[in-house]
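TL;DR need structure tokens for one chain.
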Amino acid sequence: MAEKKVKAVKDKAVKDKEKKAVKAPKAAKETKEIKTPKKDKAEEAVKEEIKNQIEEEVNVPSNGEITEFSGKYIKAIGRRKRAIAKVRLYEDGKGIVMINGLRASQYFPGEGANIITQPLKVTGHNRDFNFSVLTNGGGKIGQIDAVRLGISRAILAFDPATKEALKVNGFLARDERKVERKKPGLRKARKAPQWSKR
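>> reply
TL;DR here they are.
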């Protein structure tokens, strides 16, 4: 009798485990079904927001101002380190500087916009020209100096009388400093590995 009771208890335990094992996946499936619609709605909402932001950035020009210039222009090129800036100077402008399709203050946040307009301030042509600039290569600092040199050269080509003011401030000098190449056997261009006597 004792053996029968033990078998009956074991059978009940096995049946209970099987029932729990069968019930557990159903509960998991139900929870998954509940979670997925919420995730889908959230993902769709995020995708719509991103699309709206991209459309606003692409379609709406900054503050509704002119982003492309037309007419005659004077070309100039400025370089610094690995950066190259192709500058076009348009006469009868409002002092707008567009760099790679963006305003100068957007492309070079902070002091960068002030640095590239220094030649205009020195020569007194703050609001006389519009500039369209295409720049690539290098980093932001190199691009800032390349754009400033290009603007200086364009102003000089338009008005040779400004040469003295630009030259005194160093805006016509091409900064030739570049990173020196690494040498074989050295850590960097000149830094050598630590010397040990033995």
